[in-house]
Every structure is written in structure tokens, then in C-alpha cells.
Amino acid sequence: MNAPSPLAEPDAPCLQLQDLRVGFDGEAPLLGRWSARLGPGLTLLAGDTGSGKSTVLRVLAGEQPAAGGTLALAGAALPGDVNAWRRLCFWVDPATRAFHEMGVRDCVARLRADDPAFDDAHWQSLAEAFGLAPHLDKGMHMLSTGSRRKVWLACALASGRALTLLDEPTAALDAASIRALQAALAALAQDARRIVVVASGEPWPTLAWRQRVQLPMA
Ligand SMILES: Nc1ncnc2c1ncn2[C@@H]1O[C@H](COP(=O)(O)OP(=O)(O)OP(=O)(O)O)[C@@H](O)[C@H]1O
């Protein structure tokens, strides 16, 4: 299924990748010389386990330097001011323990800080759909892995940042939450203000992907 191009909007963001290379020293490249313009809507980063999806997301998030090439988005660039770049991105490493010592509400406040277009009402409805209501006054360390992931997933979906990066978003989610996630992603596919890159080993056949990128891409 193909969505109409939200790139036609005058202020639509565009992530420009020029000869992007991703990999680790002494190992075969995971991504060799990728040049692309990613516009608003959904991009699927597909590939088997170990193909490099998480590593590419970390590079797009400005959390890991590329092995070569450049990235540009909304006046920011990499290599360049990495803090300016990160302000444009919503990214949470699924393996992070950074929020364990916080309460759920403090975690949400942290994730939505410096995000003026964050949609509070959307976050509330996602938190409801994800079954988070009974957990909002708990500490993050008290939540199951799936519930912890739902907290930042709801923040990611409600974010107003130009670039949202989701790593295996269905991992550890129950069936009802996966349905809510799919509905939220279907809405984002039509959002002209946001570029959403999803790394996943699943095909997601019902969503309107604007672009599918298969890894490894040498
Ligand atoms: N710090 C590192 N140093 C060297 N190699 C690494 C490092 N981190 C990851 N790798 C290797 O890079 C490759 C890609 O890993 P990555 O986690 O990006 O894959 P993935 O597609 O996200 O896998 P999965 O679907 O299992 O999460 C793997 O072979 C992994 O062992």
C-alpha cells in the first residue's frame, strides 16, 4: 500500500543521507554508501537478527558516529552539532537503564522536555490503550519490561520531533497494545510533520510504508 506523498507540504521535514556508511572497525559494513531522502511518513528498516537495524538507528539518532557520509535534517547536520541533532530526534535505546531510578511521570516529563509540539492528549489516550493507567504513580523499576517499553513508546508516538526512531516496537507488547501501536503508526503515516523510522524483523503488511530498506546493504 502506498501513501500519498506528504513531502508535498511546504514545511515537511526531509532527512537527507549522503553516502552513509555504518559498521564496526575490522568487520564487514552493515550499511555501505546509502544515499536517500526520507520524507514524512513511515520508513521500515528491515532485516534479520544481527543485520544492523539497531546500529543504523543509533547512527540516525546521533548516538553513534557513522563510518562515513553525512546526514542533514532541518538545518542540522552530522558530522556537526550532535546536541542540535538529538533535539530533532526521538530515540530511546530499548536496552537503556537510564530511567530505572525515576517514577513513570518523571520519565515522561524527561522524554517530553524540549519537545514543544508534544501531544499530551495523544499521550493520555495511548497510555490508556496500552493499559498504563494503573502504573502511572509507580517507579519505572517496578514495571515489567513491556510496560516500561510502553511508557517511552507512548512518548515516541506523541512526540512532535521531526524524526522518530523505533527499535522493534512490538517487542514485549501484548496483543491489545500491538493493535493500538498499529493504529498510531497508521495515523503517523499520514502526518506531514514527522519522519518515522521503524526497525523491525516483521513485515508489517498492513501499514502504508513510504520506503522499505533491507539490511545489510553493502
Ligand atoms: N559495539 C559493537 N562492536 C562490534 N560489533 C557490534 C557492536 N554492536 C553490535 N555489533 C554487531 O553488529 C551487528 C549488528 O547488530 P545490531 O544489533 O545492529 O543488529 P539488529 O539487526 O538490530 O539485530 P536484532 O534484530 O537482533 O536486534 C551484529 O553482528 C552485532 O554483533
From TrEMBL:
Keywords: ATP-binding, Cell membrane, Membrane, Nucleotide-binding. Signal peptide: none annotated. It comes from the Bacteria. Residues 15-217 form the ABC transporter domain. The keyword Metal-binding does not apply. The keyword Cytoplasm does not apply. GO terms for molecular function: ATP binding; ATP hydrolysis activity. This is ATP-binding cassette domain-containing protein.
